[in-house]
Amino acid sequence: MTPSTSQAKKKVAPIVAVNDFVVKFANVNGSGSASANALFAKSIFRMGVPTTPRNIFPSNIQGLPTWYEVRISEQGYTARRAGGVDIMVSVNPQSMADDVREVRPGGYFVYDNTRPLDIRLLRRDVNYLAIPLTEITNNNYSDARLRQLFKNVIYVGAMAAMLDIDMDILEQLIAEQFAGKKKLIEPNCNALRLGYDAAKNLHSCPIGLKVEKRDLIGNRILMSGNTACGLGAVYAGATVAAWYPITPSTSVAEAYEKYASSLRIDADTGRKNYVVIQAEDELAAMGMVIGASWNGARAFTATSGPGVSLMTEFLGLAYFAEVPAVLVNVQRAGPSTGMPTRTQQSDILSTVYASHGDTRHVVLIPSTPKECFDLTASAFDIAERLQTPVIVLTDLDIGMNDGLSEPLEWDDDRVYDRGKVLAADELDALDKFGRYLDVDGDAITARTLPGTHPEKGAFFTRGTSRDEYATYTEKGDAYERNMQRLLRKWHGASAYLPEPVVKGSGSAIGLIHFGTSAAAVYEAMDTLTENGMQTDSLQLLSVPFHDEVAEFIKQHETVFVVEQNRDAQMRTVLVNELEIDPAKLQSVLNYDGSPLAADTVCSQVQQALGNRQMVAGD
Questions:
Q1: Among the four residues 119, 203, 438, 530, which has the most C-beta atoms within 10 Å?
Q2: Which part of the chain has CATH 3.40.50.920?
Q3: Helix (H) or strand (E) holding 98
Q4: Average pLDDT rounded to a whole number, residues 503-508
Q5: Where does the chain hold its CATH 3.40.920.10 domain(s)?
Q6: Between residues 7 and 377, which one has the greater pLDDT?
Q7: What angle in degrees, to the nearest 10, is found between the helix axes of 33-46 and 167-177?
Q8: What is the pLDDT of residue 576?
Q9: Are the CB atoms for 507 and 534 separated by under 8 Å?
């Protein structure tokens, strides 16, 4: 039995919305749907409406279900919206039962009715929109691969008719996509029109959901965090990238190589001014970064949680020997292999305290693609100023998905901060050079680079205990002096780190958040305000913490720490580093692998406050 649209409309009142709904495409991994789905998202963006696409894919290469979710929000909200989708485009029989369950009451289910729909998939509160996709492709294409590829473009054309998307914009996007292969432009435009005409002939278009042109984008861009990190490394002057492939960080190194290949080429000789090395594993990659940094290059690597686990020994070496290094950690769901293609913020503790012994690392935490660019670029200055590893901590959600962002900016007059690097004449002026001698009391010692001076300079670096002149020793007092200086350096690092972002006007309730939780928290604050609950927020951008963080906690009666992990890891760091009473900090947690939604923040905050009021009332 195949339901008709008219039958469905008798049973439910369809959702009606303009520029405020969620579309989800259900496909088969490896079917070539990604570019078609991205075409759909970009067309709405080009219509001037804020758009946030998310690719939800399995960890295998091909064959399993994959989804592409697009939130369209005239209000500019970019977080995942909980509670189901408004329109599901289901072209994968494997996932169809799950897909139909995800549609909100009154929502729409678009499917291929070349074959009858299983009666068990019928819901009385869903509007079914049938398009004979397979029949259309079979009638127009003889090649099996072309049928699959053009089927994806056909359903985009059908969606254009249903949602009233400007076809001229879609055709322009296709022309841009295939600018280097112009013979593909017309066939793709034809496929678009096949879907558009089919939807127009079969259904009343547009449906209750509609996209209307606006001018709400301004100069903002769509960009992935991994791309922004890679580009930030190029602009920071990085010349060495050593890495080992791992989801979801691989595209950081790929982006660096892509942009370096055009931006870091000597104009006179045409030679590359950079090197990209794929190491045999993550441990080796970090070792290469440390070696290159010790020699004076700006070097970095990118990995995810399992790679950080392998890198911890070398991270400890760089911390103790005081060698600058930059690491981009794109977090995923763990532990072990975990869910490698799902997002989390679960590497907080393993990153801040990476390596054995007493070790603390500087961490930068961006929440937008622009912050990914800015903080990655700054990481190299900070690493060299402090002579220590600096870890840029992102996650899969921002790393692998295109996000709405302010445009990237760079000051061409900016001068790199190389820190306390002594030149030959400066070494000549010293009676004796002490590599680990704190001359000016800021806990940051001077260093030299190999080849700077024929006699003076500590070119040999060790991971064993030493005195202020880099001489090996196992004397306890020398070890203690060194460890205390390292701790003072870490506590003083906040002077070089980005300050937290505080929003609000003195509410009793505070929300501390970081990274990709920002979008959900800011939307939740609006919702809570509409429900009569005022809140303030503080976005952490770095560890160690600025004084403003402790002051924010002190000023608020109740403080919620919002994070995407099970064990409240950032709360643990706050308690540990700021010596906060644990009872002062309550947790809002999300760790199912999906990006945080505003509804999750609202419900957990309201529930916690409600429970506290009930206890107080008793």
A1: 203
A2: 501-617
A3: helix 96-101
A4: 93
A5: 5-210
A6: 377
A7: 130
A8: 97
A9: yes
Q: Are strands 585-589 and 558-563 parallel, antiparallel or unpaired?
A: parallel
Residue 3 pLDDT exceeds 70: no
Using one digit for the tens of pLDDT, what is the confidence trace for 44-97? 999 999 999 999 988 876 678 999 999 999 999 999 999 999 999 999 999 999
Fold of 501-617: Rossmann fold (3.40.50)
CA of 241: how far to CAs of 130, 310, 312, 475, in Å?
50, 17, 18, 38
Question: What CATH class is the domain 5-210?
Answer: alpha beta
Distance CA 254, CA 154 (A): 31
Question: From residue 172, how far is each of 179, 192, 315 by CA, in Å?
Answer: 10, 12, 48
Q: What is the pLDDT of residue 612?
A: 64
Residue 32 has pLDDT above 90, yes or no: no
Identify each DSSP E strand in 74-136 by its residue range: 85-90, 103-112, 127-131
Q: What letter would DSSP give residue 86?
A: E
Angle, helix 167-177 to helix 185-202, in steps of 10 degrees: 150
| Nearest of 96, 90, 108, 101 to residue 9 by alpha carbon | 108
Q: What is the pLDDT of residue 59?
A: 82
Q: What angle do CA 250, 317, 333 make, to 5 degrees?
A: 35
Average pLDDT, integer, range 282-297:
97
**pLDDT for res 7:** 45
- pLDDT value of residue 618: 45
Q: Which of 432, 443, 439 is nearest to 481 (CA)?
A: 443
Q: How far apart are CA 377 and CA 395, in angstroms?
A: 18
User: What token pair was written down for 199?
Assistant: 């939807």
- Give the per-residue pLDDT at 144: 86
Confidence at residue 376, expressed as pLDDT on a 0 to 100 scale: 98
| Residue range 293-301: mean pLDDT, rounded | 97
DSSP state, residue 27: E
Preceding omega of 498 cis (within 30 degrees of 0): no
> Residue 171: which residues within 8 A CB-CB, separation 6 or more?
189, 192
Q: Write the CB contacts of 143 (distance below 8 Å, at least 6 apart in sequence).
A: none
What is the pLDDT at residue 61?
66
Sheet containing strand 536-540, edge to edge, reads: 501-503, 536-540, 509-514, 558-563, 585-589
Instruction: Provide CATH 3.40.50.970 ranges for the chain.
Output: 223-405
Task: Find all residues with CB under 8 Å of 430, minimum gap 6, and list them.
Answer: 456
Per this entry, what is the length of the chain?
618
pLDDT tens for residues 450-482? 989 888 765 667 899 999 999 999 999 999 999
Sequence-distant (6+) residues with CB within 8 A of 224 are 251, 369, 398, 399, 400, 401, 402, 403
Strands 536-540, 509-514: pairing kind: parallel
Amino acid at 294: W
Q: What is the tens place of the pLDDT at every residue in 137-194? A: 999 999 888 888 999 999 999 999 999 999 999 999 999 999 999 999 999 999 999 9
Tens digit of pLDDT for each residue in 108-118?
999 999 999 99
> What residue has token string 């995942």?
80
Looking at the whole model, is its pTM more than 0.90? yes
For the domain made up of 223-405, the CATH class stated in words is: alpha beta
Helices 225-235, 250-263: axis angle to 10 degrees equals: 40
Burial class (CB in 10 A: 0-12, 13-18, 19+), 183: exposed
